[in-house]
Amino acid sequence: xxxxxxxxxxxxxxxxxxxxxxxxxxxxxxxxxxxxxxxxxxxxxxxxxxxxxxxxxxxxxxxxxxxxxxxxxxxxxxxxxxxxxxxxxxxxxxxxxxxxxxxxxxxxxxxxxxxxxxxxxxxxxxxxxxxxxxxxxxxxxxxxxxxxxxxxxxxx
Length: 156
Fold this sequence. Notes:
By secondary structure, the chain is α/β, with parallel strands linked by helices. The protein is built from seven helices and five strands; from the N terminus they run E-H-H-E-H-H-E-H-H-E-H-E.
C-alpha cells in the first residue's frame, strides 16, 4: 500500500519557479521520478491558491500539474482544528491557510504533508507542537517534510 502524500501549494508552484532554480530542479526531479511511489492528494485550499495565480500561463501550468489528483474538502472540523493550531501559537493568525493544510492532513489521516514552506510548516518547532495538539485532541501524528526528505534530495 502506497503512503498518502498531501501537497501544499508550494510544491506544484516550485515546479515552475525559475527564481529558485535548486528548489525547481529538486521538485521537477521528484515529480517526474518519485511521485509515482505515492498516492497524492491536495485540498480545496491548494487548488484555490493555485487558481489565484494572476499570471494566466503559470496558473494553467500549475493546474495542469495537479489535474487528476484527489482534492480533499475543507470541512468544519478542519477549520476548528486549524484554529487550534493558531490558538496554540503554532501558525500565525494571518496564515490561516497554512493551519488549514495541517488540519486537512490530520483530519483525513494522510501520512505526510509535503511543503517547501520552512517558515511555518517544515521545521522542528512546528512538527513538535502539531504533534502535541493532535495528541491532546485525539488525532494521529502526522509527518511534515520537504520534497528533499522523500526522495528529492538526489536531484540537488
